[in-house]
Amino acid sequence: MEAQPRQKTYKIGQAAALLGIKPYVLRFWESEFEQIRPVRTPSGQRAYTEETIEVVRRVKHLLWEEKLTIDGAKKALEGDRRSGLLQEIASELRAIRAELTGRPAGE
Q1: pTM (two decimals)
Q2: Which of 3, 78, 81, 105 lies in disulfide reach of 94, CB 3.0 to 4.6 Å?
Q3: Segments forming the whole domain that contains residue 16
Q4: What count of other Cβ atoms lies within 10 Å of the Cβ of residue 22?
């Protein structure tokens, strides 16, 4: 049995420094955005994955650069999630159609 490689994680201070924000801002955003959920270590410390870091980057962009409110940023993130899901579904449907018709998925 092969061991899975561990995913790189960052402690809250490391994540905040990487993102150019203060740790208290990161903790606040966690309380506001359900998409920001760091894993917890056995000792209870927050550990941010690369995926979580990317979500926080998106939140920062929406709030600081696009000047959206927290509610506006929440709606934008929800739209991002729906858009990604719809693209996934469309891709799967194209693959199914290609299998059924015998034509390549791009046609």
Answers
A1: 0.71
A2: 105
A3: 9-101
A4: 12
